Sequence to fold (123 residues):
Amino acid sequence: MVRVKAPALRGKTKEELLKQLEEQKTELSNLQVQKVTGGATNKLSKIKDVRKSIARCRTVLRANQRENLRKFYKTKKYMPLDLRPKKTRAIRRALTANESSLRTLRQRKVDTHFSQRVYAVKA
Fold:
């Protein structure tokens, strides 16, 4: 089997990807058996390529799955932690724009009763 490229895998459906993954896994097991039984060296060098191809398939499957989950949770109130933006711990815990703009009842009273004085400056 030839080396697979990730862009070629992205266009495939989930079923096609799973089928290709199974084919590569069986090929890998065959190559590992040949390695134990003393197969040709060109077969042994293919083991690395097949393992990398399996990893590519699984990566594309996982990326598609995460993309679908993001679409699903787009309209929901809460999102799973692994789909939320990572950022930094401090940024995640910082107040939101709405929370920081809120004022207490006492502060609102002070603002209304003792508003900023406006002076006319003589030119």
Residues 41-73 form the longest helix (33 residues). Residues 21 and 57 are 6 Å apart (CA to CA). The helical segments are 6-10, 14-37, 41-73, 89-93, 97-101, 105-113. The chain has a mean pLDDT of 92.
